[in-house]
Amino acid sequence: MNPIIPGKTLKSTNLIMIVFVLFALLIHFPTNILSQNTDIILTSEESEWIAANTNIKVANELDWPPFDFAVDGEPRGYSIDLIKLIAEKTGLQLEF
Description:
This protein has 96 residues and is α+β, with helices and mostly antiparallel strands. 43% of the residues lie in helices and 16% in strands.
């Protein structure tokens, strides 16, 4: 038995609490947070460097999942997703 919610198991109580917290977070965050402008603001020095170095060679680990790994020779993972997003926002071209 569960001392927090009588008649419920501890496992179901944990699930109820997780759902409640997620619901509270969704209500708390403003709805426009997902629609905000996500452009990267660069200094003039950074912009000049990117203009002079548009092609960047990127090395990645082959066996560090979930952060950095390869599947059939293709880079994958959180780090790869992040560097691709930065490249997309800044105009850099990546070569793995």
